[in-house]
Amino acid sequence: MNHLNPLVQATLPTKVPLEVVVLEGQLMTAALGFRGTHTIPLPTKHGRVYFHLAQSLACIEDKKQSASARFRLSTRQYWYRLQRDDGQSDALLRWEYLSPTLPVYKDHGKRWCWRHIQMPHVVSMPHGELNFNKIHMPSGYVVIEDVIRFLITDLGVKPPCGKTTWHQKLVDSEKKFFREFNAR
After folding, report:
1. What number of other Cβ atoms are within 10 A of residue 180's Cβ?
2. How far is Cα 136 from Cα 113, in angstroms, rounded to an integer?
3. Residue-wise pLDDT tens digits, 123-136
4. Residue 94 · residue 79 · CB < 8 Å
5. CB within 8 A of 54, min separation 6: which ones?
6. For 32-46, 65-79, 116-130, which range has the lowest pLDDT when averaged over its residues?
7. pTM of the model
8. Which of 67, 85, 105, 171 has the least CB density, counted as fewest CB within 10 Å?
9. Cβ neighbours for 169, distance < 8 A, ≥ 6 positions apart
10. pLDDT at 68
């Protein structure tokens, strides 16, 4: 997480830091999110939106590794959302992941796509309507760097670090994530 706070501060116009909270009664499990708030406001070329970031992480020990590489992070769940307001309104767009190893998924017969996107959009089909807020449209694994890249390139969020350095900061952060925290 030490690498995420500088990344978020450099690429998103917010002073709100990320924090990790160890979940009580759940050894080696923590939650990551913005300190003291569920969302941060972001000015975009389409007006203000509110960004929600949350991850549920497990720390996995591999005793065969050296002390410096013994632990790795495993993402159990993530939720990245863009909302109209800072409350719990329906998201304009959300990226979500739920590990298929979690009891909430495997023990309750859930069979939707583990990694999916949803949005409040309905399209007409030959025999009814398809509600994109109720289906689990497949996506690949979405790292926070990709969401930030989308916010900057597609929504016009202006990165505090400037136009010339934000891209390399995202590339470096993503490499660090896969190299040091979550070898895939």
Report:
1. 13
2. 6
3. 999 999 999 999 99
4. yes
5. 31, 32, 33, 38, 78, 79, 80
6. 65-79
7. 0.87
8. 67
9. 7, 10, 11, 161
10. 67
Residues recorded for the chain? 184
Residue 146 burial by CB count (10 A; 0-12/13-18/19+): exposed, middle or buried? middle
Smallest Cα–Cα separation from 73: which of 174, 143, 2, 178? 178
The domain segmentation of the chain, as residue ranges, is 4-181
What gap in Å lies between CA 161 and CA 63, rounded to an integer? 40
130: its two tokens: 């398809």
Residue 25: Cβ within 10 Å count? 6
Per the structure block, which two tokens stand in for 144?
Answer: 């926070």
Q: Which tokens hold the place of 156?
A: 């016009």
What whole-number distance in Å separates Cα of residue 24 and Cα of residue 182? 23
DSSP H or E segment with residue 78: strand 71-83
Tokens, residue 175: 């490499």
> Which parts of the chain fold into alpha helices (H)?
4-11, 103-106, 144-153, 166-176
pLDDT by residue (tens digit) across 69-101?
A: 667 778 889 999 999 988 777 899 999 999 988
Which tokens hold the place of 111? Answer: 């069979």
